[in-house]
What does this fold into?
Amino acid sequence: MKQQKISSPSFFIGKSADGLISFGSGQPDLTPPPQIFRGINTMKMFTYGPVHGNEDLRQALAQKYPGARKENFVITNGASEALDLTLRAISQPHAKVLLPKPYYYSYPHNVRLASMTPVYYKLEQGKINITTFAKAIRGCRAVIINSPSNPTGTVQEISTLKKIEILAKQLGVYIISDEVYKDLIYVRKNYLLKGPHVLTINSFSKTFAMCGLRVGYLYSTDREVVERVIEIKTHTSMNTNVMAQHMARGALRVPQSVINKQTAIWRARRDYIYQGLVDLGLDVWKPEGAFYVFPKFKNPNKVIIDLYDKYKIIAYDGTWFGDPTRVRFSYALDLEKITEGLRRLKMYLEKEYRG
It folds into this structure.
């Protein structure tokens, strides 16, 4: 029988079946906080809302960012729309946007859809080498920083981020900071990039397990870009789901202690799967945030096809992220499933894999 071809994450998205262990999608399996369900029984949630987002949600977000005002935020349909709108708002035909390798798999597509050109620099063990970065950023319109990173799970050093701030300001380059995993850091608190042209992308999906509600946002003190984003959104999606925004407002009432307890769960899972992969003899660095591990494999596309077809495991080909030497495993699933997945992976490594 000819083996099926799996050339994109879209093959796996939404797949579920009895006995299937999915290390694929980055969707938290934790229960959303009960605060999001309070007070949603009102007719106001079935009417159009402001294109830039509900005022109470933007005001609450402003309290989370030092010196911010509600006018600095646009509420979007997930972080994906925030990134798309932001790239289009700063777009110049064929302008270069600097991406790391590996990158989140949608970045190059987003850049091209905004009529710009992705260019790349290589991370070293998931980290930015500032010398390499400083050379690559020259002549770019924007750079995307993703810390904690999907797919590497690495967190960039604060000293490096501060140097990037200075460099981008000197060169007049936009920094698009993708911070959807900012509350899932195991090594330090999140560092918020600052500057006149910093465009921060965030989401309620990961911290509050609200993926399907599709609530994200853009935060920036660059009023010109914010206004452009609002204008584009006016003619595309209009307002973000009003009820989902109300639920996001409820999420912001969740005590930090609850978020800390969830982070402890992610850390424990990180420790467990990391040690499990090391015990299997795989080359992998220890994640510092998010919920991904990125071990090395020879011929990763064959690996993910074999794992899916023969062992009922979903994992993502590192080639989709710009690294054809690795496979991404998400540990956004409980320890029992992680244990079973590692058991099946061990069987595959012993019986079929040729490293």
About this structure: The chain has two domains: 9-26+256-351, 47-251. The first helix runs from residue 55 to 62. The longest strand covers residues 96-101.
